[in-house]
Design a protein that fits this description.
By secondary structure, the protein is an alpha/beta fold. The chain contains 12 helices and 16 strands. The mean pLDDT is about 95.
Length: about 350
Amino acid sequence: RKRRPKQLLSLLTDKTMLKESIERISSLISTDDIFIITSEILLEPIRNELVELPPENVIAEPYKRNTAPCLALSAAFIMSKYADEYSPENISVAVLTADQSIKPNDAFVRTVDTALSYVEQNKFLCTIGIKPTRPETGYGYIEVEAQGSEQQILPVKAFHEKPDLEKAQSYLGSGNYLWNSGMFFWRLDAFIESMNKNLPEVGNLINTMAEKYKGKTNVVMGESLSSINEIYKGFPDVSIDYGLMEKADNVVVAKALFEWDDIGSWDSLQRVKTANKDNNIVQGKSVLVDSQNTIVVNATESKKVLFAGLGLDGMVVVVTDDAVLVCPKERVQEVKKCVEEIRDSKFNEWL
């Protein structure tokens, strides 16, 4: 939901996924050097959740324009923020996510450290690739040359969109395909040059946006910077994968040393949490009778709502203070149909 996206939910532990992601990287990157780009509506909720971060480090993008413009905005902000201390070739950037299951933490930090060290010494764009454990059709894939057993950084041969099952099975069998984690690493100058070359309608305006941010990067803003709104509004809606990574000729991948799962839908909890004897995942005040293969998340904040289920099999149930979701586990990817129906029914306060 608009004010409660998954990164502000406590899905894996008693901490929100966003707080977990900050703590995960804290041994490598100071909180003063961690920045979050989000929507205006989430500025205050995120600042309230992450009181350890300087509030001015939570920045609003003016419009929803996908990840390529968002990362261009972050590049402009960071370049302006450190302009008096560092030039772009002396700034390295890690683009990390807040909606993934990652463990163990020390292996994740080692992988990130390796990726950052590589791009600091080489003018390359780097991503993290995960060794597939199943023929997953919900992830993008990275194709590499035959993998050396000890080599952690590999040249990228091609990026591939989410495959059908048959193709996913062939990817898994070949051993030359990795899951695309959506995490990226680069030196700021390498990123800007690559954006100028491969997505010039966005890249050529990074310096202009950086000028607009001059003198304002230490100001706590309650909205996006008005002087960049028109610039940003004109950007295409394009992902960083499609707009840059698939086109650039200087891309490498760091093989993950850690276990990873994308928490993209409710059924992914089945893979990352421990089920009970009936293969149920139960979170919050809930009672299940004669039920199996079911996921129940009672996320009511009042703690006064009990969920009771009888004879459930292969279902997902999510309970909040003002709304309830019930659907078969195999149809969780279709929840957006409910969102569309809610919008059509003018029940916008529940979106």
